[in-house]
Amino acid sequence: MTAPTDRAAILIEALPYIRRFHGATVVVKYGGNALAGSEVASFAEDVVLLHSVGIKPVVVHGGGPQIGELLDRLGMQSEFRDGLRVTDAETLDVARMVLVGKVNRDIVSAMNVHGPIAVGLSGEDAKLITAAPHSVELGFVGTVLAVDPSILRRLLAEDLVPVVATIGADETGQAYNINADTVAGAIAASLDAEKLVFLSDVEGVREDPSDASSCIRRLSADRLAELLESGRAAGGMIPKAEACVRAVRAGVRRAHILDGRIEHAILLELFTDGGIGTMVMP
């Protein structure tokens, strides 16, 4: 048990950060690997706490594992190229069903247990995300062509928390499944956010990808770009790192990559002196 004096010290340590970020927009990308069991409830508690102290959270979520699971149950084979799932029309229907109809609903419901504050939407709603094809080979996998944050600003002005599924549409209405890391970075830039936070399955950006003890606590966007060019940011870290670089260079004050497997990781990073992940600065 934590002693009462220690609990009080934790609250006092958090106070200047709560004051500093009051009224600030924080975009949080919640990965599909973390969307299981009680972790959703814990994540929801963290976001509700941010909202309760005057921060304006926007949640962007993925759902790759959940899409893969349903495809397997339906007997549909998944093919990947450069880490992206080849998406034909039938696979796109499954992705929309999982992201918009299941994962988004689960997160919204977990948050609304604490009060009527969360609103679910996808990039197709109010032309939030205008998409373009990533490549012919990948089918209906998209890239972000433009973000219109009007609907997000309206929801934030009503003191609500938007929860965004990463399906976008082109000018003809054709839907595309888009990498959630990319969407989170683009949304953070469009909102001129104070922070962009990625919840990952590693402790942060590593100097040596194979050495967990080499986690870099602070680095500039330029330094992170160098790690990308040298190949030392690899695998699933690549889209997160690229999104951090683009977002910070576009005006987002700080970007963070955290281990989402740690309970209350967001609170530990934002409200403590030491933090727990990697912070990317201009």
Q: What percent of residues adopt helix (DSSP H or I)?
A: 40-55%
Distance between the termini: 40 Å
Uncertain spans: none
Query: Regarding CATH, which class?
Result: Alpha Beta
**Under the CATH scheme, which architecture would be assigned?**
3-Layer(aba) Sandwich
Radius of gyration, whole Å = 18 Å
How many structural domains does the protein architecture include?
1
Find the CATH superfamily.
Answer: Acetylglutamate kinase-like
Which topology does CATH recognise? Carbamate kinase
SSE order in H/E notation?
HEHEHEEHEEEHEEEHEEHHEHE
- Count of separate DSSP helical elements: 9
The total count of strands amounts to 14
Structural class: alpha/beta
Major sheet: arrangement of strands: 5-8-2-1-11-13-14-12
- Report on the biggest sheet: 8 strands, mixed
What amount of the residues lies in strands? 15-25%
